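so my prof wants the structure for this chain in the tokens format not the other one, which i didnt know existed until like an hour ago. anyway here's the sequence
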Amino acid sequence: MKPANPAAAPPNVLVLVHGEIQPGRAGERQKLLASISRACDRLDAPSFWIDLQSLTGTRETLTFDPFDSFEQLQQAHSGWRQFYAAHADLAQTQGQIDSLVNSERTIVAVRRDDLGIPAEDIDLSEARYMRVLELRLFPGHEKDFEESIKLWGQGRAKTKAEVPWIVYQVNEGTSSPTFLVFLPFAELKEYDDLLAQKEELLEENEGDDTTDRLKQIAREAYISKESNLYAVRPETSHVPKEFAAGDADFWRPASAAEAKPEAKPSVSRSKKKPLR
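here's what i got, hopefully its the right format
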């Protein structure tokens, strides 16, 4: 396996924006956002994002906005105001995108390094799909979740599972304690492998203390658990050059105008002498 790209490690602070687009307007939104994304590739935009399209659950978009710190998040917030003031055409396009959204939900979460794979071992630039598991807990049961994710991790180690996972704890945006677990996939075959490993793990550990404890935590600690699968949309994402370096053809797709070869000047058949 090639070394992970440090510029594509999971962020310390994550802003997730769930958006429900008006029926029949998803294609329009995609075209508008693609134009902003490519403009931001050329300009000094204040922050970056990965755009995800739901494959399961409610049809929605999910933007994955990475930040190093809350200070950087604050700087980006003020930076976008200045950016749109300087680029009125992009501000107008963003207004058109906003008008296509029926509803929107924003979550701010902090990475929990003690509950997932080491961040430096994960390369999000290789992700083409993302499984997002959202777990809402009854107040006071955070430690139960931490115990369950560690037990789950131990079980995956037994089956030598290779799909990494990243855990975030929601800081703002929900009314109850909430954790997010992300599993990035380079291809969906890895999801098949993950399901097979889950079945193998259950068969091997059926009836033991670990399985019983996980079931107890699920009964007593969880208000709800929702798992959905998303596809990465590079044409509507805006990522740093260092992030995209491993696969620039995927992350920075050329527009039709950029991809079209430059026309060569026609050769004159005139016998006039060329100008010097």
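also thought this was worth mentioning. The longest helix spans residues 26-42.
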